[in-house]
Design brief:
heterodimer, A: alpha/beta, Urease, subunit C, domain 1, TIM Barrel, 2 domains, six-stranded mixed beta sheet, B: alpha/beta, Lipocalin, eight-stranded mixed beta sheet
Chain lengths: ~450, ~1050
């Protein structure tokens, strides 16, 4: 479907009285679909030219070449020749749905009060009716890890896709991991217009607090066998998955010392899955990360280098540096204006390609690698048979803003509405001016 | 406390005085009594003279007398001259100073000695708009000209610092209360105990800075606010004087009275570094000061020698050489900036470089941990090439001249204060000691010049044996040993005046047990003689004769110590990462076969040539021919094969906050039109380089958005390495930042900020009307005044019998410029209602809003904007960070553009500015703007909005050679700038960038090794090394509100 043409033709008639409202969640996939032609970027590091991708009942059942697919098996065939097919991009470490308007406190649910709060769950605060989310999926970001902020342990994140009537519909995993903000070894000190960061005197104490909390939580696991009527400690209960391997420990850390400490902590506490979030200094300790199987969810690439002398193409080049070292990594978007900025995730991957990754590696960094790090690669993250049919079609290269333009997107096979409030406002005012709608 | 004029303080002072006087009379010699004071006891008539004879007298830094005599009488120098000529009136105490050097005591012009400690009031919640100082003083607490150091001067509690300064060599200091922007007068005081004797010249100077100090008032919060306030104070004082003279003044202002009374005094400006030094000089010029500032300039002037020299200012330099960093941890060492490493190495050569540049300067001990480190620190300067006599002048006659007190201090001449250093060698030689310091005729002894120094080698006669004894160590803690063949046998040596005791065991010579000897030293310790007791209690005689010492070795050592160190590193411009050792020059460059995005009618040219020459675009097109381009005499030029490359005009960022220092928001009042970012440009911001790497060549540094009428902007070209002044885009017209909405209403500032008008959009409108009406009336008042002056009779003019000129008001002057369209408005704006409102305000006042910046709801009023003639400078896709940007859409740029509005995308963010070409591409994505037009969003259109499109913004013959060479389609995320030119100078080059990285690595490594080696070539290795600290510049956005100017 050519949306530009579609809108140009019908917009003046159809949308004037339509008002603005969130897109309706898509109904279950009832008819099987075959995408025919085009380039399929599988997310695995491979691509297929002139591909065919088929899916039914929400799952991909064919990945191959257009020339060899049995077209008759599909109810609907969408010709995508000259276009690009991608697995839905995944936005890890996101506050999408947890906050609406940054400056309006009433619309923020991203940070609970307290220091150690692993029992706090992001999933129930994920607002499927956020006006921001539709603008994000319009660019190909179809899934995310919704992550709380603040404190030493912020709470648990969940994994959702961006289409649903409520959080229960949206959730792929209600709890996937616990987020720990590793204390910094330096503290900020301001003088004469510059900010110094000095060795933090309280670091050792903070470290002891973390250690203590985890030791308590570990000891608490034995309590599991106690009678169900025994008094419970919600925080300790929430920690269980860290020790049995069912939950990941996401440690937010940028500095080489923080990262090193966190890896030692993993070994000391016998934590199975540790993920570094941020990791500006990760290349400095790549061996350590690789040897301990610690992947990195890299900090937003579109940020400034940390030090004046750092290479001016930092942190653009971080993915390439980790790729060369064999460390598993993916991209994420935390930082200023993070929730609305999530729609630029594809372009961080584009930047990673501009600064060293191959194109398919760049795609992988926002798809399968993210799924692997989040532990959901068994059912999503790539165009592989048996996986969720969460994917989209772009007219052009989706990693480049110049050509990123989605014509269709599917979440578990459901064809989702790519409209959003911003498009509606655009049409409304172009109509006011009698100007063409080029969208 | 500074209200010295008020009665309450007088009573406080006098009570203290009373007590002090009582103690004084009871305990001290009446010699110190004052002429006007009643005498308790017998009068000391001070008849004695003191004569120093046969000394090497350093009359001044340039004049030395050998075998000379200085006579002092009643605290002053009575005579100086060759000993053979000077006759000493009796009665006189004579000191034989043979072998000793007499110097004038040092003078320090930057001290707060014996001043009350400046203390900040306790912090209170919420804003403070006016001074809370009681009495008829000015409105701002940071303007304190009424402060008089002389009135505050109280040395009674400053014994420690006095002793320390005396020991450092200072006989007199210029002291002032180091607090505020206008700090009042300084007092020249001798370092004597008695305040009446010590106070040499009250109110000898005035003092200034850009730091607001202890003021609890909000204004000024920024450097630019401080600058504007300082200028405005000058104009206020002009008006006050004029109005007073003509009896037109309706109010009294003791601050301005004091300010005017100090106009002709030497003025000292505490700048602390070359950055504020240049700014201070600019202020001086802007207010037409009769006394230009003497600039207290810290230790980094070497970083911008030429610029500082061009100010013509006298300087006061610090010699606080940086301490080495702890570089033991390679990871933590990353936290040390290259600038800090290089400064450690180069700062010790600062004074020498300043001298070589021909700038006259004084040296202050300010910044040293202890003043007593001074001579050592100056020796380091001398080691780095500062001539000794220049160092001496910088501590004596130059500071004296700065204070116009060269007839009182700074030399040893008749009539001057008897402030004399007695040294046992040349003052800056490493092993020379300060023996005595005479201040106003009073002696302070550090080393007893008559003390016996028994160190040396002796032949000791003992029980018919002659033994060799060596006495070494400190003069007051000698250690001795006998040399027997080649064995050392320790001798415990004690000296108490003339009496010596020796204790030793010489069993090898058959002397059993521990022997003790006592005796006396005679003839300057050339002969010792005495008795001793053997272990068995029987007595023996002993004597010793000193061997003549050979002193040539010691002299040689001195000579080696004074050999200048070779500094390996070079100064770089700017003095930070990616700085250049050489300033790059404009080149003549011929690009061949490029894809050229002209942003002009020519559109995109394929396989075209472009020629840059003399900083301008000389020619472009397909198949250019050198002879037609250059004529008959082609210059040397570089040909660059640009096949496959794209060349665009340099990117222009209409809205940024990089390259500014100490605050981008004054914001403490609803209007701060008087402040200007031009006064706070930071040329050393590495973001300039980072953005050159993203193709940016010009940017407007805007004031923030904290108030409806913000401040004046600075439009800069990215001439990396140039001084703040040279960065300014001279040909660009003037702009000012306005702002609307939540920020100016202080909506998100918390509950303490609910008192400033306006708190609603309704109030915002009235702020504009109020200010513009006032500006209009201000201009009218000036017109009428000027007319009156023109029409006044010659006689009236000659006798100044006309009305006072209106008070010059920088704020209203700026606003009047807007009304005259001599200055253009760029207004931070989001919601359509207030955008519409401001256009109405402008229409009714007869001017046009040049640019709405952000303008995220511009798409709702694009028709009205087009009608008004405003341009839009927007974000591509920001929204949802505040309530007022709830309706922001990424299609905004496309809609505005579609309605014929000049539309740009800006960054307002140091990072995004590195990728503005990509932001432009979003206009293609959101709303289908053509690529050619989209590129103009970050090139030609912002140039139009800044009214510099006749010079930059497109590729056209005669325009500035500001171009970018890309390796890809310039709107693609994959495009990287390979070369960026500003004025034909290649400020960024991908290959050179790689070399710079290598250079930084090796320079760091070299400096790290040097630091490890113990600071041989760099600054002081004294004290504990500094732990690295991370230096993060504040990353400014519109909303950054910090108080950075204390």
């Amino acid at each position: 479907m050519n949306w530009k043409l579609f809108f140009a033709l019908i917009a003046p008639f159809a949308f004037i009285s339509a008002g603005t409202c969130q897109p309706t969640p898509a109904p279950e996939q009832t008819e099987s679909v075959l995408l025919l032609g085009g380039t399929a970027h599988l997310g695995t590091g491979d691509a297929l030219e002139n591909a065919a991708i088929g899916f039914r009942d929400g799952k991909i059942d064919y990945v191959g070449f257009a020339r060899s697919v049995d077209r008759a098996r599909y109810d609907e065939i969408i010709e995508v020749k000259g276009q690009h097919i991608y697995p839905g991009f995944i936005a890890p470490n996101s506050t999408l749905g947890l906050q609406e308007i940054g400056a309006v406190r009433a619309t923020r649910d991203d940070a609970e009060v307290g220091t150690f709060k692993p029992h706090v769950r992001s999933v129930i605060a994920f607002n499927t009716d956020s006006e921001v989310t539709p603008t994000v999926r319009t660019n190909g970001v179809l899934m995310g890890q919704i992550t709380p902020r603040g404190g030493t342990i912020s709470g648990t994140s969940c994994i959702v896709h961006f289409d649903g009537w409520n959080w229960e519909d949206a959730a792929l995993k209600t709890v996937d991991g616990i987020h720990l903000n590793w204390p910094s070894t330096h503290h900020r000190h301001r003088q004469d217009g510059t900010i110094d960061i000095r060795k933090r005197k309280t670091y050792d104490q903070q470290y002891q607090e973390i250690l203590h909390f985890f030791e308590e939580a570990k000891a608490y696991q034995a309590y599991e066998r106690a009678p169900a009527t025994s008094p419970r400690d919600l925080r300790m209960d929430a920690m269980r998955g860290i020790f049995d391997g069912s939950l990941r420990l996401f440690v937010h850390a940028q500095d080489v010392r923080q990262i090193t400490e966190a890896v030692h902590f993993k070994r000391q506490m016998g934590i199975e899955h540790l993920v570094i979030v941020g990791g500006y200094d990760a290349p400095l300790v790549a061996d350590l990360l690789r040897d301990n199987e610690v992947p990195v969810m890299l900090k937003r690439l579109h940020t400034l280098p940390r030090f004046a002398e750092d290479d001016v193409d930092m942190p653009y080049r971080l993915p390439k540096l980790l790729e060369d070292e064999g460390v598993l990594y993916c991209l994420q978007n935390a930082g200023d204006m993070e929730h609305m900025g999530t729609r630029n995730l594809p372009f961080y991957a584009g930047t990673a390609h501009a600064y060293g990754l191959t194109y398919e590696q760049a795609v992988q960094s926002v798809t399968l690698s993210a799924a692997r790090i989040l532990g959901v690669d068994s059912f999503c993250g790539s165009l592989e048979t048996g996986k969720d049919a969460t994917l989209f079609i772009s007219e052009g290269d989706a990693l480049d803003m110049r050509t990123n333009y989605l014509t269709e997107a599917f979440i578990q096979g459901r064809s989702i509405d790519l409209d959003n409030r911003q498009r509606q406002l655009y049409r409304k005012y172009q109509t006011k001016y009698g100007a063409p709608i080029l969208d | 406390m500074s209200e010295t004029m008020n009665g309450l303080n007088y009573s406080r002072i006098s009570k203290r005085l009373l007590i002090a006087t009582m103690v004084f009379l009871a305990l001290t010699d009446p010699v110190k009594a004052q002429e006007t004071f009643p005498v308790n006891g017998t009068v000391n008539k001070q008849l004695l003279r003191i004569a120093f004879e046969h000394a090497t007298v350093h009359v001044s830094a340039s004049e030395t007398l050998e075998d000379a005599t200085v006579v002092i009488y009643r605290g002053r120098i009575e005579a100086v001259g060759p000993s053979a000529i000077v006759s000493i009136k009796e009665p006189a105490v004579r000191h034989d100073m043979t072998g000793l050097h007499l110097y004038p005591s040092f003078v320090d012009v930057h001290q707060s000695y014996a001043m009350p400690k400046a203390q900040r009031e306790e912090w209170s919640r919420g804003p403070q708009y006016l001074s809370d100082k009681k009495g008829a003083f000015g409105w701002n607490e940071a303007i304190r000209p009424e402060t008089s150091a002389a009135m505050e001067f109280d040395p009674s509690g400053s014994g420690k610092s006095r002793t320390s300064l005396q020991k450092a060599g200072f006989g007199a200091v210029l002291t002032h209360v180091q607090d505020g922007i206008v700090r009042g007068t300084g007092a020249l005081v001798a370092l004597s105990e008695d305040p009446r004797k010590a106070l040499l010249i009250p109110d000898v100077s005035t003092h200034f800075s850009f730091r607001k100090g202890t003021s609890s008032q909000d204004y000024p919060r920024s450097l630019m606010g401080a600058t504007a306030l300082l200028k405005q104070t000058h104009f206020d004082a002009d008006w006050y004087a004029d109005a007073s003279r003509l009896n037109e003044r309706l109010e009294s202002n003791l601050s301005l009275e004091a300010f005017n009374a100090q106009r002709d005094l030497p003025a000292f400006f505490e700048a602390g570094g070359w950055e504020d030094a240049l700014r201070a000089a600019n202020v001086s010029a802007a207010v037409d000061r009769s006394e230009p500032f003497v600039i207290v300039a810290g230790n980094n002037v070497y970083q911008r020698l030429e610029e500082v020299k061009a100010t013509g200012a006298l300087l006061v330099l610090s010699v606080n050489h940086p301490k080495p960093f702890d570089v033991s941890d390679p990871h933590l060492s990353r936290l040390i900036g290259l600038d800090e490493l290089k400064h450690w190495e180069l700062a010790p050569s600062n004074a020498a470089r300043v001298h070589q540049a021909g700038i006259s300067f004084a040296i202050t001990s300010d910044g040293l941990q202890k003043p007593t480190e001074l001579r050592k620190a100056v020796q380091v300067c001398i080691g780095h090439g500062l001539p000794e006599n220049v160092a001496l002048a910088a501590l004596t006659e130059i500071p004296a001249k700065m204070l116009r007190a060269q007839d009182r201090i700074g030399a040893l001449r008749t009539g001057m204060e008897a402030n004399i250093l007695v040294m046992d060698g040349p003052v800056f030689h490493a092993d020379a000691q300060l023996m005595e310091h005479w201040i106003q005729g009073k002696q302070h002894i550090y080393v007893d010049r008559n003390a016996l120094d028994i160190r040396g080698d002796y032949d000791v006669t003992l029980e018919d044996e002659v033994l060799s004894l060596s006495v070494e160590g400190e003069a007051d803690a000698p250690r001795g040993y006998f040399m027997l063949d080649s064995t050392k046998i320790n001798v415990k040596v004690n000296q108490d005046g003339r009496t010596l005791t020796l204790g030793f065991q010489l069993d090898t010579l058959g002397f059993d047990g521990w022997w003790r000897a006592t005796g006396n030293a005679w003839m300057d310790s050339r002969i010792w003689e005495g008795k001793g007791q053997r272990a068995d209690g029987t007595w023996f005689d002993w004597s010793a004769i000193r061997q003549e010492a050979d002193e040539s070795g010691a002299l040689e050592e001195v000579a080696i110590a004074l050999e200048p160190d070779s500094v390996v590193g070079k100064v770089i411009w700017p003095f930070t990462a990616y700085g250049n050792e050489e300033r790059p020059k404009a080149q003549t460059v011929w690009f061949e076969n490029a894809t050229i995005w002209t942003c002009e009618e020519e559109g995109v040219l394929e396989a075209a040539d472009l020629v840059l020459h003399n900083g301008e675009i000389l020619a472009f097109g397909i198949g250019l021919d050198p002879s037609s381009v250059f004529g008959v005499n082609p210059p040397e030029y570089e040909t660059i094969d640009a096949r496959g490359k794209h060349i665009t005009p340099g990117i222009i960022d209409e809205h940024t906050h990089i390259a500014a220092t100490r605050g981008i928001n004054e914001g403490t009042q609803a209007s701060s039109a008087e402040v200007s970012i031009e006064t706070a440009v930071n040329s050393e911001d590495v973001n300039i380089y980072r953005q050159l790497a993203g193709g940016v060549t010009t940017a407007q540094i805007l004031h923030g958005s904290a108030n409806p009428i913000g401040g004046q902007s600075a439009i800069i070209k990215f001439r990396w390495g140039s001084s703040p002044e040279e960065l300014l885009f001279d040909e660009a017209p003037s702009f000012i930042k306005f702002a609307l909405g939540e920020n100016v209403k202080q909506s998100n500032w918390g509950n303490d900020y609910r008192s400033r008008f306006p708190q609603t959009r309704m109030g915002v409108e009235q702020v504009y009307y109020d200010h513009f009406y006032r500006a209009r009336e201000y201009e009218q008042a000036w017109k009428e005044y000027e007319k009156m002056v023109r029409n006044a009779s010659r006689r009236a003019r000659r006798s100044n019998l006309i009305v006072a000129a209106p008070r010059r008001d920088l704020e209203l002057e700026t606003l009047a410029q807007i009304l005259r369209s001599d200055r253009f408005v760029t207004c931070h704006s989001y919601r359509q209602d207030e955008i519409n409102m401001l256009m109405h305000v402008a229409d009714s006042m007869g001017f046009t809003i040049n640019t709405f910046t952000h303008i995220l709801e511009g798409y709702k009023v694009a028709d009205k904007m087009a009608e008004h003639g405003a341009g839009g400078s927007s974000f591509s896709d920001w929204w949802a960070y505040k309530y007022e940007v709830k309706d922001a859409i990424p299609y905004n740029g496309a809609v505005l553009h579609g309605q014929g509005i000049v539309t740009a995308f800006n960054s307002d963010d140091a990072e995004m500015a590195r990728r503005l070409n990509q932001e432009a591409a979003k206009a293609v994505k959101y709303g289908g703007v053509s690529e050619i037009e989209a590129l103009k969003f970050v090139t030609l259109n912002p140039a139009k909005l800044l009214r510099i499109d006749h010079l930059v913004g497109s590729i056209a013959v005669g325009k500035h050679a500001d171009v970018v060479v890309w390796d890809e389609h310039p709107l693609s995320i994959y495009a990287r700038a390979e070369q960026t030119y500003v004025d034909g100078v290649r400020y960024f080059d991908l290959d050179a960038d790689g070399e710079k990285r290598d250079w930084m690595r090796s320079e760091r490594a070299r400096l790290t090794q040097a630091m490890k080696a113990g600071g041989a070539s760099g600054g002081s290795a004294e004290g504990p090394p500094r732990t690295p600290t991370e230096k993060l510049r504040t990353h400014y956005h519109c909303e950054t509100l910090t108080d950075e100017n204390r």
